Amino acid sequence: MALADPAGCAKGSEDSTPFPDIIELNVGGQVYITRHPTLLSVPGSLLWQMFTQKNSRSLARDSKGRFFVDRDGFLFRYILDFMRDRQLVLPEHFPERGRLQREAEYFMLPELVKLLAPKLSEQNSLGDDPCQSDPEEPSPGADTARSLGAGAVPGGAGGEGRRAGFITIGYRGSYTLGRDSQTDAKFRRVARIMVCGKTSLAKEVFGDTLNESRDPDRPPERYTSRYYLKFTFLEQAFDKLADAGFHMVACNSTGT
User: Fold this and answer.
1) Please, are residues 32 and 24 in contact by the beta-carbon 8 Å criterion?
2) Which SMART domains does the record associate with it (predicted)?
3) Fewer CB within a 10 Å sphere, N or C end of the chain?
4) Helix (H/G/I), strand (E/B), else coil: 243
């Protein structure tokens, strides 16, 4: 047997750490793999406090030994990206800024909280519109007729006549499936095209082709999901939306 090198043992004890270089995290059921220095990149943050401990046994783990954090697993990706690059990069039309700001507050990331904080509008008021756009995105201008949800109001002059908003189109239709595979599905017909949105905006876009019989006398600034169109051609509905300056931001279907 050989005697151990005393100098080597001392050096090993100095470099020892309770955490490996590669760390697996289970955040609300979502698994993330990152490096230990990334979790320490923001001094004073919650993750920094967790992973600078001298004893890792106090941290919760799941059944597979991964460190467990009981927070929103889907939003944690943006927390981790910020700790890597110190930049905030979100998808276009990101709808969960408020929830992400709450997560940033929990993880003690004041810089990220500041980036996510909503900015005051020109009228110095917040919350007038429950569906505000992201702060870094410009509002529809007079020369941007085809920005998100910007419909040209008939007879309007420049930017003063434009109204921002969203319209959702739904349809009830039928289709047949082929014998061999689902890729042979054939679309048959549309039974009804339904419209959901603000009453005044829906009337501006679809005019007299909008059937209001299921929800009559609805105030212009109220929302409805009971309108439907008098025609049954999806292309015609999209033509009217395109003519009014809208473009599609999302779609979903159970058919092919």
Assistant:
1) yes
2) BTB (SM00225)
3) N
4) helix
Q: What are phi and psi of 216, to 5 degrees?
A: -75, 160
The 10 Å Cβ neighbour count of residue 228 is: 21
* Residue in the structure block whose two tokens are 């967790």: 50
Digitized pLDDT (tens) for each residue of the chain, 256 residues in all: 555 554 444 444 445 678 999 999 999 999 999 999 999 999 999 999 999 988 888 899 999 999 999 999 999 999 999 999 999 999 888 889 999 999 999 999 999 999 998 765 444 444 444 444 444 444 343 333 333 333 333 333 344 455 678 999 888 776 666 665 555 556 666 778 889 989 888 888 888 888 888 778 888 888 988 888 888 888 888 888 988 888 888 888 765 4
Adjacent-strand bridge partners of 169: 195
Where do runs of H (alpha helix) occur along the chain? 6-15, 36-39, 46-50, 76-85, 97-106, 110-116, 199-206, 234-243
Q: What is the pTM of this model?
A: 0.45
CA dist 27 and 59 (Å) reads 13
- Please name the fold of domain 22-116: Potassium Channel Kv1.1; Chain A (3.30.710)
Quickly list DSSP for 60-119.
-B-TTS-EEE-S-TTTHHHHHHHHHHS-----TT-S-HHHHHHHHHHTT-HHHHHHHSPP
Neighbour order of strands in the sheet with 67-69: 30-35, 22-27, 67-69
Cβ-Cβ contacts under 8 Å for 65 (sequence gap 6 or more): 24
User: Between the CA atoms of 235, 237, 242 and 248, what dihedral angle is there, to the nearest 10 degrees?
Assistant: -80
Q: Where are the domains of the chain?
A: 22-116, 167-175+187-244
